């Protein structure tokens, strides 16, 4: 199964993708994790991305596409994948569509996790305390939410128009949200 998780920062994409990975036995590809790994490794790309991410801005489309092409060239994605954090704007959605068609792996399904803004802010504040992530400070969070509303939310329409979108209520316990996603995926295939 080839699946993309959509939703605002704090909506639970990374959290649920980690669980879905176990259930579906396909790799979890998080562009945020890939970028944080580059930052931690101190690579040229990581040095470029570090300040941009800490400020809550989007890293360039070019860098992201290169990273994704590289990731999809690895053989573990042949049986499917869960994509999390990409696409974040229309240019990325178009680039992804072309890339996946080119490698003969078109997207099967998009799940949007829907969570009200006040709860997003609360969750990220909780993570800021627990993990101290550089972009979880209030100013960057405001920026990330604005970018989501203006640039990422329109991408949801793209998947709706392609008949691939299902919207899942992201409010509730981790188990409740996980079970809702499985229910939404059940009619697609092989998921119980
Ligand atoms: P991401 O790593 O994608 O960060 P995120 O949007 O905050 O989502 P994440 O998946 O981490 O959080 P989750 O909702 O699971 O991106 C970080 C940055 O990288 C971006 O700002 C950008 O700079 C850069 N970047 C990444 N992709 C890019 C792209 N395509 N283009 C350009 N730049 C890109 O969880 C949040 C918190 O909520 C957690 O603490 C979790 O425990 C909690 N939570 C989750 N579900 C919950 C539930 N049901 N109940 C209570 N708490 C819950």
3D architecture notes:
This protein is α/β, with parallel strands linked by helices and 192 residues long. It has one domain: 3-Layer(aba) Sandwich (Rossmann fold). 57% of the residues lie in helices and 12% in strands. It has eight helices and five strands, in the order E-H-E-H-H-H-E-H-E-H-H-E-H. It has a five-stranded parallel sheet with strand order 2-3-1-4-5, sandwiched between helices. Helix 2 crosses helix 3 and helix 4 packs parallel to helix 5. 30% of the residues are buried. The model has no long low-confidence stretch (mean pLDDT 95). The structure holds BIS(adenosine)-5'-tetraphosphate. BIS(adenosine)-5'-tetraphosphate (B4P) binds next to helix 1, helix 2, helix 3, helix 6 and helix 8. The site of BIS(adenosine)-5'-tetraphosphate (B4P) has 32 residues, from helix 1, helix 2, helix 3, helix 6 and helix 8.
Provide key terms for this protein.
alpha/beta, 5-stranded parallel beta sheet, 8 helices, binds BIS(adenosine)-5'-tetraphosphate, 12% strand, Rossmann fold, single chain, Adenylat/UMP-CMP_kin, 192 residues, 5 strands, globular
